[in-house]
Amino acid sequence: RLFGAVASPSPAPGAPAVAAAQPGPAQAQTARLTTEEAFVKVLQKHGINNAFGIIGSAMMPISDLFPAAGIKFWDCAHECNAGMMADGYSRVTGHMSMMIAQNGPGITNFVTPVKTAYWNHTPLLLVTPQAANKTIGQGGFQEVEQMAMFKDCVCYQEEVRDPTRVAEVLNRVIEKAIRGSAPAQINIPRDVWTKVIDVQLPAGVNLERSPGGQKSVAAAAELLSSAKFPVILNGAGVVLAEGGIEASKKLAERLSAPVCCNYQHNDAFPGSHPLSAGPLGYNGSKAAMELISQADVVLALGTRLNPFSTLPAYGINYWPSQAKLIQVDINEARIGLTKPVTVGIQGDARLVAEGILDKLAPTAGDADRANREALIKTSKAAWTVELSAMDHEADDPGTTWNQRCRARQPERMSPRMAWRVVQKALPADAIISTDIGNNCAIGNAYPSFEAGRKYLAPGLFGPCGYGFPSILGAKIGSPGSPVVGFAGDGAFGISMNELTACGRGDWPAVTMVVFRNYQWGAEKRNTTLWYQDNFVGTELNDGVEYAQVAKACGLKGVKAATQEEFEQALKSAVEGQMQRNETTLIEVVLNQELGEPFRRDAMTAPKLVVGVSAGDMQGQ
After folding, report:
1. Burial class (CB in 10 A: 0-12, 13-18, 19+), 254
2. Is the pTM for the entire model greater than 0.70?
């Protein structure tokens, strides 16, 4: 293991900058205390008062102090879900939380949520108790290489090598997570606990965010001042930057520039604003795609421009390859990585947007302003009408799966019918989460938000099982907000064991919607398009009744088969959540229509050369 090993050469995208240090004392006076007391006092100094995981003997010296220290330990049903809850909590609040579990098999279950949080740009503290120093390397009980396991999942990792350094290392790991806007790991051999040490508790260092280089900001302002059709593309960095959405709004209004949102970041700009065009990418807004295709200058604000977010959709190859591109990202390693960039700016999204606004020419945005504003309005209106009339999914030429589904079960709702109910019945101030899967992906164009930190999508690591635990974490972080999670029945099966945990004690109530179409939809869609309906591993158990499972766990369970039943169930569930602390699972029965595949760009129909036969199978 490397001491102080930096697991990623640069901060995660969306990270706050590490600019000028604020003056302050470096150390406090030396004190005598135990290693676990030192650990908890550093947590208190940073305000980390929520921990998610499953109890284990290797962490009990510190968990024993949690109640007295004002730290709430949310004991979950599975560590993977605990990590997703921590991500949901921190994304909604902007505050760090902690993931902790037993060394070995408890910690291995954190790999998927930690990598998920990395690509969601979520600062989290990953605490990994380790096998004892005196036995490590002997292949003992619950021993595994925990540093190597998370090397590519965190922005920083460090192991405590001596009991006197617990506070120092923990403080540094927390600060690295904040600066990197990503998870960071502290690995602690279990025989470090219960030692009495003389130690100085570190005071910490606060770092300012960067407004970007003056020359690059001036160059961006010059490009936007002369643009005939400027378009702004808001990413996660706009949500993460304090005041980022408001700064982008002022810049957009000055330029009369339409604002698109990156894939899975529908909350990066107010949906009701006249300049809001909606999300790009998979099942996104046609209005956004049509408008950005006209751009001569694109300001990509707080986004790494990941390739998946700008793939063609609805048959539209909309990315304006001839436009001049200004990319703003806090992580310099991401600038220019996926698209040719005219001006690159490393800096905080809000500060850069304010800097550009200050340097715009007096005539910026005047070129063809009236026509541009008119086109934004008509494009949005046309897409609203088209989306409201989209009841069903199309079949590719030569395939008939969706047609057959409608004929086989004409009484059942389609996914789009269900999403229109959500659009109608969801409270305006709701926080929602969605999972990976075909039914949730079809809904990308429907939800819009007036504020940031309202939309929790799984992100580009793409884990199934995110929707339920992340909305539990979101409710813990924002108990006064109505929260609703969404998942398909396949993805929900991965995290549904949290039904056994979330009804206990002081767990706050949530509403969870499970789209029941009895299949792994995304993989089944691939099968219908490229594998001639040769369904392998795509069928789910018809006999499972999810609403009844919820009832068996002491929660409310409701099954809805029509739009009217779903609307009533959703409104009632949210009312029960907010007024009576009732957790409700709504099982929404859908037909088996399937939307656009996730990876049309990556799929190819196979061609056999010699063929295979079961007759060739040999015994072992």
Report:
1. middle
2. yes
pLDDT tens-digit readout, 456-482: 999 989 899 999 999 999 999 999 999
Helix (H, G, I), strand (E, B) or coil at 300: strand
Q: Are 491 and 540 in contact (CB under 8 A)?
A: no
Burial 411-437 (b: 16+ CB within 10 A, else e): ebbbbbbbbbbbeebbeeebbbbbbbb
Q: Cα(361)–Cα(532) distance, rounded to whole angstroms?
A: 58
User: 348: how many CB neighbours lie within 10 A of its CB?
Assistant: 30
User: Which 3-state string (H, E, C) describes 538-603?
Assistant: CECCCCCCHHHHHHHCCCEEEEECCHHHHHHHHHHHHHHHHHHCCCEEEEEEECCCCCCCCCCCCC
The model's pLDDT over 191-224, given as tens digits with 9 standing for 90+, comes to 999 999 999 999 888 888 999 999 999 999 999 9
Nearest by Cα to 590 from 488, 499, 505, 516: 516
Instruction: Using DSSP bridges, classify how beta strands 196-202 and 27-34 pair: parallel, antiparallel or unpaired.
Output: antiparallel
- Type of residue at 86: A
If one counts every other C-beta atom within 10 angstroms of the C-beta of residue 541, the result is 8
Residue 96 tokens read as 């760090």
DSSP codes, 302-346: S----GGGGS-BTTB----TTSEEEEEES-GGGTTSSS--SEEEE
Residues 6+ apart with CB under 8 A from 187: 1, 128, 130, 146, 147, 157, 158, 159, 160
Nearest to 306 by CA among 265, 361, 246: 265
Dihedral sign for Cα 443, 377, 231, 315, please.
positive
Helix (H) or strand (E) holding 487: strand 483-488
The answer to whether 465 and 80 have CB atoms below 8 angstroms apart is yes
What's the angle, vertex CA 482, arms to CA 480 and CA 488, rounded to 5?
145
| Pair of tokens at residue 9 | 């050469």
Distance CA 288, CA 281 (A): 9
Q: Which of 296, 441, 285 is nearest to 367 (CA)?
A: 296
